Prior knowledge:
38% of the residues lie in helices and 18% in strands. The chain contains 23 helices and 25 strands. A seven-stranded parallel sheet has the order 5-2-6-1-7-8-9, with helices on both faces. Strands 13-21-20-19-16-14-15 form a seven-stranded mixed sheet, sandwiched between helices. The mean pLDDT is 94.
Amino acid sequence: MKSFFLTGTDTDAGKTAATAALLKAFQTLGLDAVAIKPVQTGCLERNGRIEAPDTVFCRESGGQAEALKCFRIPCSPHLAARLEAEKLSVSDLADMCEKAALQHEIRLFEGAGGLYVPLNEQESVLDLMARLKYPVILVVANRLGCINHALLSLDALSYRGLEPAGIIFCRTTPPEENDPGTSPEAEELILNENVDFLTREAQRRGIPVLGNLPWYPDFSAKASCMEDAAARLAQAAALLSQYIPQSNTAPFRGTPQELLDFDRTHLWHPYTSAMKPLPVREAICADGTSIILRNGTRLVDGMSSWWCRVHGYGNQHLIRAIQQQAGKLSHVMFGGLTHAPAAGLAQRLIKILPGNLDHIFFADSGSVAVEVSMKMALQYHQSLGHPQKSVFAALRSAYHGDTIGAMSLCDPVTGMHSLFEAILPRRYFAESPSCPFHASYDPASFAPMETLLRKHADELAAVMVEPVVQGAGGMRFYHPDYLRDLRRLCDELNILLIADEIATGFGRTGRLFACEWADIVPDILCCGKALTGGMMTLSAVAASRKVAEGISSGDARHGGGVFMHGPTFMGNPLACAAACASIDELLASPWQERVAHIEKQLRRGLSPCRNMPGVADVRVLGAIGVVEMEQPVDVERWQAFFVSHGVWIRPFGKTVYLMPPFIIQDEPLMQLTNAICAAVNKASDNVL
Ligand SMILES: *Cc1c(COP(=O)(O)O)cnc(C)c1O
């Protein structure tokens, strides 16, 4: 079955005539096609039945047609529905469309008016089309101004990631209704040039021109008109019946299977073997909290794509921010130049970051931010005349990234230090804080760190910690008072405190930044991941005035005084624009209530695991839910099980966890927790 969405550059563009003619052309080819009108306004009551005029028209010309929602008043659907005390929604309409007339070989969905015609106060026909993702046939009303309307429509389609299957020109006005000042010859010239110009443009964009319908006086009554129009669209029908969506493979040149084979042969995925990789699945798009796979499977995303997609997928504000910025200035070197997106982002960060962290350095990724923070700490002590303070301390079970400096501060066992020991710098580890987040604070839990710092104070430049939540090193939640003790001791010993908030920043733990749980201000703070809402890679390192001044006071004759780092893509305007939009979106949303609600749901949904055999611990903090198993899990098998349950969850080590987007609704969240319960249950029976 093939489905198309037919829309026009305007109302009265000739959509219905084109639809009826296409139906007839399909018929001639022996194909069973149907026209479906998702919303029809201007319906009439006849013999006690409500009849949709476009549908009646298609039927009278011999085609099959139906309307899904009918309203009497001939006006925009949002108003027509409101006048009958109804409310249209994209999700309901999309459900109806997906289920409609499935027995037919070809389904032609006909829109209402143009793309931005509203269905309700928030959603338009274009939103419905974006949800359905059917290839689009654009009917261009061939009249004065149509080049502009056609190009605007094509841009709007591409902006929403929709694929034009082709263009049909339709002459909609009789010659005598034209401007009296325009001679018939001049009018011919203008209308022909419309077609020629747009045909050239369509060719450039790789969009087929499917047909060109002339003006028919009284189209409906004359069977000969319909025959003529159908004949003119015969080739179009043949083309459409063979239509293979471009997005099937583009930009990859090959079939979906070839893509997977190519991937297996040539692409490295995170932490996998090049020779014996674990299987991967092709994602083709995502919206809301779902990732959609090539085979059509919709998976509820429990990972927020490694914790960054706090607003889920397809957020229009974020998409627009990047598109608008791309149109203005996608990148420019940050050496000697600046721009509003970078300054605007720093403005926002300084406002929401704890304390006086008011010097911002932009970097490319979380790991790079960690490297930058380490270099800052070194230069700080060097500038102040303590070059011997050049070693770092960190916690066991920590994760700070994969580049060499960052990796050196990850847990030495799970961070695979044995592989890279030869190049890792000297560093010290303290036991992971033993006092859990929800217990009352045990000051003895700080003793190992205190002993370590006092012993090595002379050589320590900084201590790096993930505040409150240790993420990829084991998903452990520790007591905020530990951070207070750490802050105090660092001050006493002149050791800088670096907070790695790459995972915890932007609300994940229930506070905007996890340092707020302890009410402390680090000397340097790194953030990344959710900074751009997961739209682009970007990280930021925020330093206190003390650190910035310290570095600046260095002796210029010995290379001091300036901070020595400057990546090519520093302050990339696209990423900064995305981050500004993401922070605005977050702060404008009820994120605290959302995270608190997710926390409650996670607690309830994961609690059955507590008593299952094989489970070591179940813990929840903010929008993070963790089931820790006694034994490491088989990632490949667990992942396959989760996919078969319609969810995307990727465990690591002994940890099975959820970090859903903040916009997740109760039902999909329950699907996530239920899937984990089912998997753990199966594992405890030794069948997973
Ligand atoms: C993910 C992460 C990093 C590394 O960030 P990348 O963008 O993957 O380089 C560093 N620290 C923490 C706490 C993280 O969660």
